[in-house]
Amino acid sequence: MTPWAEVGTLEQTVLECEPATALARETGSAEEVLFVLDGSGTLTLDGRDYKLEPESGAYLAPDEHYELRGELTAVAVRISDPEPPPSGGGGPTRAVVRRLDEQQAQAATGAREFRIVADPTTGLRSATHFVGYIPIGRAPDHFHTYDEVIHVLDGEGVMHVEGDERQLGPGTAIELPARTVHCLENTGDRVMRVVAVFRPAGSPAAAYYPDGTPAHADAPVLETAGP
């Protein structure tokens, strides 16, 4: 287990599960999400087995114990101090495992797309877990109102953050505090993909130009302009 990125209440880690070995984990007071990078295996939770394969995501609630078996690598994000469960025991039906290829693609800014892995509509109370598709080229400078941790799945590029540049490639981890002005430039020859988690939950398309103007129709108007 290797710590990779941390911002606010989000801590991103890469897990490696060895064959013929059970990796026992517990969430404690936090929520946790997983995204399988490669390999396959099984997640055992409350006596039930869930199949894990590349590009499947899993959601674990607070106070849960689970085991991973098989030979796989996954990105895990721990979300401390989670939102309380819905009052009265209501809320959406929880999805423990969801597969990326079964989720609908949605439009974001600059011809980008995303697919939701987990969010409050699937039981994840505190954050949004998604995969983003970034076309070749550079996005306009912008910021978000949420903290975010990102893991590059494939492709190459440059992250521009407040005048600094950072080279990106598969396995790169990024941490973005809320209201950090940035842009991601895809310098490769194909679509770049990233898996990310941000808090508070919302739409990955909710972005703002540096002056606070919404960059997409799904971005609510800010009460105070600018970062």
Structure description:
By secondary structure, the protein is mostly beta strands. It folds into two domains: 2-81, Jelly Rolls, CATH 2.60.120.10; 100-199, Jelly Rolls (Sandwich). It is built from no helices and 18 strands. Strands 1, 2, 3, 4, 5, 6, 7 and 8 form an eight-stranded antiparallel sheet that branches. Strands 9-10-11-18-13-16 form a six-stranded antiparallel sheet, with no helix packed on it. A four-stranded antiparallel sheet has the order 12-17-14-15, with no helix packed on it. A hairpin with a 5-residue loop joins strand 9 and strand 10. It is globular.
In short:
By secondary structure, the chain is mostly beta strands. Helix content is 0%, strand content 50%. The two termini are 34 Å apart.
Number of distinct beta strands: 18
Write down the domain tally: 2
The oligomeric status of these chains comes to single chain
CATH H-tier superfamily of the largest domain = Jelly Rolls
Our count of helices gives 0
Helix content: under 10%
Order of helices and strands: EEEEEEEEEEEEEEEEEE
Question: According to CATH, what is the class of the largest domain?
Answer: Mainly Beta
Shape: globular
Which value, in Å, is the CA radius of gyration? Answer: 17 Å
Helix/sheet category: mainly beta
Briefly note the CATH topology name of the largest domain. Answer: Jelly Rolls
Distance between the termini: 34 Å
Largest sheet properties: 8 strands, antiparallel
Mean pLDDT: 92
At CATH level 2, the architecture of the largest domain is: Sandwich
Content of β-strand: over 45%
* Low-confidence runs: none
